[in-house]
């Protein structure tokens, strides 16, 4: 697999580069970053003390010229630029970027008619198994239980709630025959009144270097059920991304998520 990495100077980008360099069936062929990145022109493996022969570039055509896949965990505006370039050059995409707008997701769907894309708010295998557990739990606990989603991330995360938390809410709402937009409660302040039955609440914590913790609370009369996933390293996201790339090997077009990659689709 010939893989390029977007956001090559960032924490996730470096984790992805390291993961690709360790694979016997993959080659790092491109490393992209924004034009103001201070390490443009440096070897993508310099932070590991390795020479890969791949330099970090802001030139999309150059960075993608040998790539079959681009793995992108950047920002929405960057991902949309990368999507256009990948569509032009026929490069498959694995996208873990969160915070995409409805319009941007629509653009992604349109592009997937030409290239194969895996788009998921969280690439972790464990998180996606957790999503399946939440679907089952929500169907079994459809009455008499209040649902709250609590997510925790590092101080540098710019969007809230997290894409993973929102995906959890979507899965739960769907299992209950609802649309998340109709039942979500994202903030509580002041005299809010009693909790509205059937609502799904969100709580957001930002601090320190928390990689990503998510807990869904099903609170009933006399008992509480909690389903949690806690990340101690971004390594799980990197490994899931590689698994997604392998899934796309024989795909030429289409939009998929990690439920498809893991064979968890109902």
Short description:
This protein is 34% helix and 24% strand. It has 266 residues and is an alpha/beta fold.
Could you describe the 3D structure shown?
This protein is α/β, with parallel strands linked by helices. It has two domains: 2-119 and 234-261, Rossmann fold; 125-231, Dihydrodipicolinate Reductase, domain 2 (2-Layer Sandwich). The protein is 34% helix and 24% strand. The chain has nine helices and twelve strands. The strands form two sheets. It has a seven-stranded parallel β-sheet with strand order 3-2-1-4-5-6-12, with helices on both faces. It has a five-stranded mixed β-sheet with strand order 8-9-7-10-11. β10 (212-220) and β11 (223-231) form a beta hairpin. α3 packs parallel to α4. The radius of gyration is 19 Å and the shape is elongated.
What class, by secondary structure content?
Answer: alpha/beta
Order of helices and strands: EHEEHEHEHEHEHHEEEEHEH
Radius of gyration: 19 Å
Order of strands in the sheet with most strands: 3-2-1-4-5-6-12
Supply the CATH superfamily name of the largest domain: NAD(P)-binding Rossmann-like Domain
User: Architecture of the largest domain, according to CATH?
Assistant: 3-Layer(aba) Sandwich
The major beta sheet can be summarized as: 7 strands, parallel
Report the span from N to C terminus. Answer: 29 Å
CATH topology of the largest domain: Rossmann fold
The overall pLDDT, averaged over residues, is 95
How much strand content do the residues show? 15-25%
Briefly, what CATH class of the largest domain?
Answer: Alpha Beta
The poorly predicted ranges are none
**What is the count of structural domains?**
2
């Amino acid at each position: 697999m010939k893989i390029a990495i977007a956001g090559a100077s960032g924490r996730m980008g470096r984790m992805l580069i390291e993961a690709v360099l360790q694979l016997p069936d993959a080659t790092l062929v491109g490393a992209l970053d924004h034009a103001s990145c201070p390490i443009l022109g440096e070897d993508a493996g310099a932070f590991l003390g390795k020479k890969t022969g791949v330099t970090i570039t802001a030139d999309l055509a150059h960075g993608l010229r040998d790539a079959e896949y681009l793995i992108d965990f950047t920002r929405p505006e960057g991902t949309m630029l990368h999507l256009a370039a990948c569509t032009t050059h026929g490069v498959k995409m694995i996208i873990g970027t969160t915070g995409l707008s409805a319009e941007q997701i629509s653009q992604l769907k349109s592009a997937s008619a030409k290239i194969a894309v895996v788009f998921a708010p969280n690439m972790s295998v464990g998180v996606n198994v957790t999503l399946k557990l939440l679907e089952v739990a929500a169907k079994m606990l459809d009455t008499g239980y209040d649902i709250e989603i609590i997510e925790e991330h590092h101080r540098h995360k710019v969007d809230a709630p997290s894409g993973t938390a929102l995906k959890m809410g979507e899965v739960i709402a769907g299992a209950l025959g609802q649309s998340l937009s109709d039942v979500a409660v994202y903030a509580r302040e002041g005299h809010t009144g009693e909790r509205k039955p059937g609502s799904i609440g969100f709580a957001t914590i930002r601090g320190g270097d928390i990689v990503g913790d998510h807990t869904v609370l099903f609170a009933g009369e006399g008992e509480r059920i909690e389903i949690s996933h806690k990340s101690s390293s971004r390594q799980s996201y990197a490994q899931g991304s590689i698994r997604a790339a392998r899934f796309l090997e024989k795909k030429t077009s289409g939009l998929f998520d990690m439920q498809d990659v893991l064979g968890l689709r109902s």
